[in-house]
Amino acid sequence: MKIIKNEDLPQGSQEWLDVRSKYGMASEVSALLGVSKWDPKTPLALWNIKNGITKVEVNYAMEHGNKYEDEARNMFEDDMGAKYPPVVVLDNSMVIPNENEDIIPMGASLDGYREEDNTILEIKCPLKGTNSDLWKQIVETSKLPEQYWLQCQQQLMVTNSEKLYFWVYDVKNTSGLLQIVTAHKPTHAKIVDAWTNYFSVSRPEATPEDLVESDDKEWLKKAKEWREINVTLQVFKEKEERVRKDLIELSRGQSYIGGGIQLKHGMAKGRINYGKIPELKGINLEPFRGDSITKHYLKAV
User: What total of structural domains would you count in the chain?
Assistant: First the structure.
């Protein structure tokens, strides 16, 4: 295990990005296992980023987290009475079981690390603070979302640590929520298997969710036909919406029939917001969910 201090490899620097491109990092495990809520979401999408084909767009939530990380760390350090400086950890101890015994390069960018007792700090600064889904889930279940659980487990694995402090910081109220995460060996094995598969091939297979460029002649022909039809539909849709609005105004609240059309006015009940029902808080509703359905999203690009 190699520990690199932040001053030697500042997180976010080009040198740091170059290291990340060569190593399987802890924050990428959720994409590797297909459970990430954000891009990248698949092994191929991750591969595209690591090879410079696509880029991760920095959004406001990411900027917010980066901006207040130092503040969150300072508060945690004051509470703990110990320093947890950010470091990058690289581990080349794992090998692929093949003829060449190729190395499985794994690593983690730690928000904080205390070498004296080999403990880790992971910081999250959600935009909504105490009202965020992350804060509420930890309070209600004492469990982390799967993508963060996996991230923490790789951090524990590459450092051979047994304890990680998961610190959720509310910027507005300057308050923190602490969840202790311990090493889970079966998850470590799952992560190693996933990185072994990733580094054993030159390029991961595409999943149904991955966008794959097609040069199929029939596809290109139908795509051209659809684009032309779609443009025409959009024109008529705009016209239809304008005329529809005019008809509603002309009716002055009275239901009408005439000219081969019918217009009826009525009231529909609003949807029930299940998240606001106190009795349902903390209850897992997933067992009551219906079967998954496949949706198809088509648009011009």
Answer: 2
From CA 285, how far away is CA 281, in angstroms rounded? 10
158 and 108 in contact (C-beta within 8 Å)?
yes
Distance CA 31, CA 154 (A): 13
**Alpha-carbon dihedral sign for residues 293, 294, 300, 301:** positive
Task: Tell me the pLDDT tens digit for each residue of 42-89.
Answer: 999 999 999 999 998 889 999 999 999 999 999 999 999 999 999 999
First to last CA, the chain: 45
Q: What pLDDT does residue 95 have?
A: 84
pTM for the predicted model, two decimal places:
0.79
Residue 49: both structure tokens together = 């980023």
Contact 54, 46 (CB under 8 A): no
pLDDT grade, residue 269 (50/70/90)? Answer: confident
User: Is residue 61 situated within a structural domain?
Assistant: yes
Q: Determine the residue type at 40.
A: P
Place 153 in a pLDDT band, splitting at 50, 70 and 90.
Answer: very high
What angle (nearest 5°) sits at the alpha carbon of residue 69, between those of residues 66 and 74? Answer: 160
| Dist CA 113 CA 122 (whole Å) | 9
Mark whether 37 and 144 lie in a shared domain. Answer: yes
| Domain carrying residue 242 | 214-255
Tens digits of residue pLDDT in 273-289: 888 888 887 787 778 88
| Same domain? 240 vs 135 | no
Q: Which of 174, 199, 224 is the last residue of a domain?
A: 199
| HEC assignment per residue over 267-281 | CCCCCCCHHHCHHHC
Pair of tokens at residue 137? 């889930």
